[in-house]
Amino acid sequence: MQPIFATQTASISELKNNPSALIKQSDGESIAILNHNKPVAYLVSTDMYERMMEAMDDMALSQTVSARLNDGQIPIKVTLDDL
Asked: What Pfam families does its record include (predicted)?
């Protein structure tokens, strides 16, 4: 059984028939799109998508910072005025 990470679901047929109605009905929440009762996609609002992308960017930056802090080199302290 595959988990569904949404409070609402819709079939692909419903999505094809009236995508605007699904978007309006979602009220900004994500909708799991099902094909033969299995999730195949998620319909998310632009606001949610943008927040997810920002979170992913923050995670990638955090990993870069951690890798650089752990590379064995002594960090150089600078102030904003130095930049």
From this structure: PhdYeFM_antitox
pTM confidence score: 0.73
Closest to 26 measured CA to CA, from 9, 5, 14: 9
pLDDT tens readout for residues 35-73: 999 999 999 999 999 999 999 999 999 999 889 888 888
Q: What is the CA radius of gyration of the chain?
A: 21
Give the domain CATH number at 25: 3.40.1620
Q: List, in sequence order, the alpha helices (H) in the chain.
A: 12-17, 19-26, 46-69
Decide: 43 and 14 in contact? Cβ < 8 Å: no
